[in-house]
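Lab meeting, item 3. Inverse folding demo.
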């Protein structure tokens, strides 16, 4: 059985090969993108096991996603193929400054119809960690209910619950996102906010205040991402800063936060102290920006160990 179980939507991504507005794009790369499967794949590459719970359309895009995720070594036996709803897709528009803008087509997708009966409690209880993101509850009322059900069941069964707020205001309104995120915090043993999420949720980018607010809502450990500077971990009354790793050539930040979470959870699974978990998170996150795509750029454990020891640079 997998050590880490994830729950969430994965879509097919059409990535424009040219910069500028999509109306002028002629050619696209097609790959997959989903916060939870990104973290799952990254963990498998780091020599841990992961499983994924979700729904996909019983269509060609659904087959592509399931085959890809399974091919990376993630267990997909809990993924339901739906004959009545399609697989979600999105398009990425390349901007001149190297950033991107996403256009989602996920309303009514198979994943948005997830309900609590999708969760096999025996399967869930077999894991050590449940990892979810704030994207899933924003898909629909049913998906929100399913996310909370899974988090509550995992917590009751003694699993660690890992939660990346991952606010996406294109899927729900800020006030609803704020209310739901804060409510779900009570189930979370580990939370991975960024400063931008702190600003949206609490009106502050101060890491100390972000952590204080989340802990007040019930979160256990809070790890605040502060970009190239690294991250700060908060646990009980302990505060730990970890300096970021420098990527010589940043190509694509797509999936960097998901990789960061995988690095931290890797340390947790190995019984490491917070300082080591934070360093692993920073290192995996740095590696992830060196190639286009998301899962395509995640390092093997051997690559990561060599990078962290200074034997190789992160300039692929």
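The presenter then showed the designed sequence:
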């Amino acid at each position: 059985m997998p050590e880490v179980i994830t729950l969430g939507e994965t879509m097919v991504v059409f990535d424009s090969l040219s910069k500028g507005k999509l109306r002028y794009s002629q050619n696209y790369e097609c790959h997959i993108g989903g916060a939870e499967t990104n973290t799952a794949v990254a963990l498998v590459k780091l020599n841990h096991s992961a499983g994924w719970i979700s729904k996909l359309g019983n269509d060609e895009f659904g087959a592509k996603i399931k085959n890809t995720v399974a091919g990376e070594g993630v267990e997909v036996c809990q993924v339901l193929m739906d004959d009545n709803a399609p697989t979600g897709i999105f398009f990425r528009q390349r901007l001149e400054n190297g950033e991107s803008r996403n256009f989602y087509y996920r309303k009514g997708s198979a994943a948005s119809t997830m309900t609590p009966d999708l969760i096999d409690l025996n399967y869930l209880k077999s894991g050590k960690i449940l990892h979810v993101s704030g994207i899933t509850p924003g898909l629909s009322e049913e998906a929100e209910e399913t996310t909370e059900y899974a988090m509550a069941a995992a917590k009751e069964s003694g699993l660690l619950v890992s939660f990346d707020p991952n606010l996406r205001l294109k899927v729900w309104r800020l006030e609803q996102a704020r209310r739901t995120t804060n409510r779900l915090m009570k189930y979370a043993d580990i939370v991975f906010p960024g400063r931008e999420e702190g600003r949206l949720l609490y009106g502050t980018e101060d890491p100390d205040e972000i952590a204080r607010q989340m802990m007040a809502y019930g979160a256990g450990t809070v790890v605040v991402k502060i970009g190239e500077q690294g991250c700060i971990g908060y646990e009980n009354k302990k505060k730990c800063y970890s300096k970021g790793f420098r990527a010589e050539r940043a190509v694509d930040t797509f999936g960097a936060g998901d990789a960061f979470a995988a690095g931290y959870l890797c340390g947790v699974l190995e019984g490491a102290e917070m300082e080591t978990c934070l360093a692993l998170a920073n290192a995996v996150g740095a590696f992830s920006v060196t190639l286009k795509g998301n899962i395509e750029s995640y390092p093997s454990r051997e690559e990561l160990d060599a990078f962290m020891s200074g034997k190789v640079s992160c300039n692929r």
